[in-house]
């Protein structure tokens, strides 16, 4: 018993001793850790306190106030806000072709698999009945027309009519009440149409449309020019009297609105002049006055009822004005009159210069065409004409496209070769030839077949033009017939050479009247060969 107590006591004693040692070691280790932590804390730098950073001027000066700029900016915003709802996005679906049914077991019973192409453009709502004006090229070949309004309503639409000569078309919304978000159909937003004749170069305009399918896009610019012809419409009777603007117009803007600062639509965006295919600063719009006339006929008649005067015209040049003794260069020159048509019956003739149509001046062929296009068959036109050194007045009643005279002329126009001497026999090798060396042109006499083909009794055929000569520099074409030089009639090649030699000796320019290969008469003003 005693020994067991001794052993237990010894064990307790040894355990106490060991516990004391362990506690001492732990205390020592704890002291070392505390010392180490203190040392590390002393060596570790105290992080800097973050100071608040002020963004922007804490004490800004009063903002500049330019009432005119503020008012101008606000006016643009107001115009856009008013017009945007009436400008729509048009999505076109066109059937491309019919593909054979694939033999894969999934197309049984289907005669074909249709394939479609989608395209897009813009349009302008012009009446509460759902009529929308757009471009003919936007809806050409459409099998389905879908219209998206600015307020997200969507409609199917049908084609009412189109006019290739102006690249305009009208579509009409179908069942607009079915697309209303409530039981009660919302009224359609309708654009206000302005007066494009009142436009001036330099006016601010906005273009609103859906370029690249970006609906309700608005850009700003000015009217860069009026009465532009850019030969973009693919029709032989095309009427191009475009408003030019530098407001950004891109693919998808076609059919959209060109708007003035009174929130009036003054043009329908139609084309751009570009080498890249995208905006480069030159956009064109059909004037709204011409548009109004076209869409009215398309809605009421299904086709444009256009009157025709029956003349072939071209621009008046400085040479024309000098030959015709005009005080200034103006008007358009009549190069041909259709026998039996309005102009012929009114007494107009070749070489008359049309100055005004119903009081409005016309100084370019496309401007004249645009003016006449505002009138219908049977309408009377008052024409101011320059003839024999004075202004004269004529009255002409327009004919329609279905008039036999016009139909015959149109058919003849389609058959007319651009070169009326094509197919004629080669002239004999011994036909007289003469060369005006100073001017760089070689003439020859006419053959009897050429006289009949050109409709002239005599003249000098322009057989060759020397490169870099006065004749080439001033644009005299080969293949034409010179019938007059200055005030002297020309019947042979020798006469043409002598007349030019006399003028060269005096150091004078030469005005040539030429019957061209296309059947028209033109004037060419050749500068003296001795004048740089």
**Estimated radius of gyration:** 41 Å
CATH superfamily of the largest domain: Trypsin-like serine proteases
The tally of structural domains comes to 4
The CATH architecture classification of the largest domain is Beta Barrel
What portion of the residues fall into strands of 2 or more residues?
A: 25-35%
Bin the helical content: 25-40%
The 3D shape can be described as: extended
**How many strands appear in the DSSP assignment?**
25
Structural class: alpha+beta
Tally of alpha and pi helices: 11
Q: Mean of residue pLDDT?
A: 82
Give unreliable regions as ranges: 1-19, 104-110, 414-420
Query: At the first level of CATH, what is the class of the largest domain?
Result: Mainly Beta
Q: Please give the alpha-carbon distance between the first and last residues.
A: 147 Å
The CATH topology of the largest domain, please? Thrombin, subunit H
Sheet with the most strands, sense and barrel status: 7 strands, antiparallel
């Amino acid at each position: 018993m005693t020994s067991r107590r001794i052993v237990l006591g010894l064990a307790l004693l040894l355990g106490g001793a060991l516990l004391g040692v362990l506690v001492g070691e732990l205390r020592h280790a704890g002291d070392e850790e505390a010392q180490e932590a203190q040392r590390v804390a002393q060596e570790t730098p105290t992080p800097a306190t973050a100071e608040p950073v002020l963004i922007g001027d804490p004490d800004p000066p009063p903002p500049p106030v330019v009432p005119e700029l503020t008012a101008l900016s606000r006016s643009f915003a107001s115009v856009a806000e008013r017009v945007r709802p009436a400008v729509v996005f048009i999505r076109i679906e066109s059937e491309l072709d019919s593909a054979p049914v694939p033999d894969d077991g999934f197309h049984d019973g289907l005669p074909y698999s249709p394939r479609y192409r989608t395209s897009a453009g813009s349009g302008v709502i012009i009446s509460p009945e759902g009529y929308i004006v757009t471009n003919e090229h936007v809806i050409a070949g459409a099998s389905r027309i879908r219209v998206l309004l600015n307020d997200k309503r969507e409609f199917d639409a049908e084609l009412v009519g189109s006019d290739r000569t102006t690249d305009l078309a009208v579509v009409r919304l179908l069942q607009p009440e079915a697309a209303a978000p409530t039981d009660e159909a919302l009224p359609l937003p309708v654009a206000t149409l302005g007066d494009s004749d009142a436009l001036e170069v330099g006016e601010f305009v906005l273009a609103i449309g859906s370029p690249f399918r970006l609906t309700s896009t608005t850009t700003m610019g000015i009217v860069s020019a009026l009465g532009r012809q850019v030969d973009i419409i693919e029709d032989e009777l095309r009427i191009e009297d475009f408003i030019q603007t530098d407001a950004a117009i891109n693919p998808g803007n076609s059919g959209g609105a060109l708007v003035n600062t009174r929130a009036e639509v003054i043009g329908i965006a139609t084309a751009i002049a570009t080498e890249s295919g995208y905006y480069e600063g030159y956009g064109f719009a059909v004037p709204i006055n011409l548009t109004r006339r076209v869409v009215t006929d398309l809605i009421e008649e299904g086709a444009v009822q256009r009157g025709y005067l029956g003349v072939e015209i071209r621009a008046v040049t400085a040479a024309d004005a000098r030959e015709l003794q005009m005080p200034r260069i103006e008007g358009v020159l009549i190069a041909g009159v259709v026998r039996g048509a309005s102009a012929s019956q009114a007494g107009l003739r070749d070489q008359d210069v049309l100055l005004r149509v119903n009081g409005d001046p016309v100084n370019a062929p496309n401007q004249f065409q645009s003016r006449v296009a505002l009138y219908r068959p049977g309408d009377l036109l008052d024409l101011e004409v320059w003839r024999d050194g004075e202004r004269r007045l004529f009255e002409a009643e327009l004919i329609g496209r279905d008039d036999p005279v016009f139909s015959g002329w149109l058919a003849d126009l389609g058959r007319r070769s651009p070169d009326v001497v094509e197919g004629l026999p080669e002239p004999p090798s011994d036909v007289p030839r003469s060369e005006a060396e100073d001017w760089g042109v070689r003439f020859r006499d006419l053959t009897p077949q050429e006289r009949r083909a050109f409709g002239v009794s005599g003249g000098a055929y322009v057989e060759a033009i020397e490169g870099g000569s006065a004749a080439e520099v001033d644009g005299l074409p080969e293949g034409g017939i010179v019938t007059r030089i200055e005030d002297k009639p020309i019947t042979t090649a020798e006469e043409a050479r002598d007349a030019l030699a006399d003028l060269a000796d005096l150091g004078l320019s030469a005005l040539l009247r030429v019957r061209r290969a296309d059947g028209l008469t033109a004037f060419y003003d050749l500068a003296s060969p001795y004048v740089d």
